[in-house]
Design goal:
six-stranded mixed β-sheet, mainly beta, 2 helices, about 500 residues, about 45% strand, single chain, about 10% helix
Amino acid sequence: MKWLFYVIVFVYMFYRAVYGSKLEHGVTVDPVVYGDEGFVKVGEHKTINCKASNRNQKVEWIYPNGSAVKRIPGNRIFAQEHFVSAFRGRTPALVLTITKAEVDDTGVYQCRSGDYTKDVSLCVIEPSEFVDTAAEVTANIGRSITLSCQAKGNPEPRLVWNRNGETITDDDSSAKYKIMTKYNIQGFEGLLTITSLEAEDSGVYSCVAIQETTLVEDCSHTHTHNITLNINYAPVFEGGNETNIYAKMNQQVDIACSAKAFPAPTYTLFKEMPDDSLIEFNKKHITYSEEKNEAILTVTANSTTLQHRFKCVATNDQGSAEKYFTLLKTEKPSRIDEVEIYDVSDDMVDFNITWYQAITFPVTAVDVQYVKDSNGDRKKAYSKEASWRKSSQTEVEVINSDLLMSEFGGVVIAMAGLEKETSYWMRLRVKNEVGMSPWSDPIFVTTTAEDEVTTVTSDAPEAPEEPEPSVGDENVNDGTFYGIFFAGGILVVSFVCMFALRMVK
């Protein structure tokens, strides 16, 4: 076994000769640990430890500008030597100590021992703060306003305006926003001018102060200040000023009155009498939502309330608006008069559903029944109920039920989940809590290839004329085929019988 021992000793000595110097004369630097903010704040105390590999090494710290850090404890930045425990005993370590950090200390420091070096990055920031910046401002509709935010810090902050997660840019092609930045005694001031104020301009605008440096990668800080802009405007009812409310007999129903406005409006509710006079409801009969932006009147559907109108008036110091609610008895939907297909894609078809007469019922959902026209037989009698036995059916949400109240007199739905380049026969019916309408007339539609969109009409295409067979048609029908097959079989049997008789003789 001596030869094995000699081999091990030889390998060890060779390893020490080749790699030993690197292992014994290297340096290691502890990583800089920051707090949650990811940087050292101005004025904080910070130490960075550099360790040598053996006790005979000389270690020194180098500033980002290339000069050596002196070992004078009285300095604001100094290096101090001490010994730390290591695998081969105690080895020297040099601690870089920064007593009161400044922004100018940012950079890449180097621990050096002969030809061996280790770099470490240090990020020092004086976080920006906003001064003399309002948190909420108010302006009248139609006017212009300039939002202002002032931020100071080191490095000098760059100011950016955001709204709803998107950066506001000073676009020369649009006169809506104008952005300007100036410097004053308080620091940098960002100005955002919004012209021709509309109600939609209300909301939260964010002034973002961004601090960054090119000396160290990922050395940056962002601080945000939110400014709420309120636009004074008179109450406005969305969805029109006329609404039907449906209820079954003796059912309690809420008449919810809500208008957009600033300041928040007050609400008054009335019942309209047959002679067009109005009776105001007592305030104790009206409840309000938690946000106080909706007034709710609860009534019972009966002979004294059905077919009656209720008036809601919303008022603030900018003006007033009124809305009427008509309480109707919930009835079963009537049959659809017309279904129009106006958009078709590879997996979806959009319908307009229309009634020619005034609509006196609510629509909560639409059933769509459909069957593939796989054989291309467009002459099938889909007007017969038996043709729909193997069809599929799905319930589709109404996209815009407000159209029931408009002059359009209908609803819009989108039927999804279809196969591309496929022909279908479809029919529709609407339903509510009372019942459902009869099925509409069947309609024919073909989906497009992928990424294609087309517009079609609701009329089913005419079936193509079947070609007349030509005189010289080489194709044979089933009767001809079986006749030839039968005659050939007789000939084969006859031949076999004749051959058997000859063999017997």
